[in-house]
């Protein structure tokens, strides 16, 4: 330690050495700054390695960046997409998958899937062939969107997309067939009627005996143990009910 620096604190000694260095060698303070032009955040790494669709067999992540992008991709929900219709007049539509927060609030399914639209009424489902370029390679993917009427017009501005309609679960009953079934029929063979009635009574007695046997067996069985559901299991069941 030089005697001239002995009375200085660590910080003052540091400033003294730096000033002496700049004075002797004629350099500026900027020469001490680290080059940050190649610095990357996690967001930058994900953007470089992100893929709209990952093939479980072919796309095997072999670098740290690709593994990080794959981990982010696995957390996305791929039932419906979120779209950006800013350049819809040029037939340029941006699409991405939904995040967990958007699924919880219903964005993209119970609320219009356009990024800036909050409409929740009269939503329509659309299916489109999304063509995009990824890492210098052109790809296609079939995706679904839920949009309000105004955003649906923007989506179909250049070309008509296929609308997905929910199938009706209940079928209309035919009134003619129903009325004909209400009319009672008269049998012309009394003996066959008696035999059929006897067979039906025997079958009913047999069913009652089987029911009594099953009810008695219930009391002999051991009570089923209640298995506490994990938080992940409850969340999976919630999402399954949500997408039905």
UniProtKB/TrEMBL annotation:
Residues 218-231 have a biased composition (Basic and acidic residues). Residues 164-231 are annotated as: Disordered. Signal peptide: none annotated. InterPro entries: Folate-sensitive_fs_Fra10Ac1, Histidine_acid_phosphatase. GO terms for molecular function: phosphatase activity. Residues 175-191, 199-217 have a biased composition (Polar residues). It holds the Pfam family Fra10Ac1. This is Uncharacterized protein.
